[in-house]
Amino acid sequence: MIVHRLTVDGRDYFLPDPVTELRGQILEAIKAGGGYVTIPPLRGGPGLDILFSPGMPVAWSQIDVGGDGADAGEAEHAMPIEDDSFSGL
Q: What confidence tens digit (pLDDT) does each residue in 38-49 have?
């Protein structure tokens, strides 16, 4: 199972799949000079509104939390996503 990690200004948020629409919302908020985006919860709940603004450090990564028979020591490892769609802002 893949879990997405969004790191915003040094804080981690774990997200369910898919994240494509959320990434677009964050990018649009930054392009507009700032805005709130609701981050959905990993499991049930109302989510969290985060104010995104230009220059705010934002990073995406994926974590494989196992489920394919991997050893417990190998069950969680980060795989960075090469996406610089936020770098020009």
A: 998 878 888 899
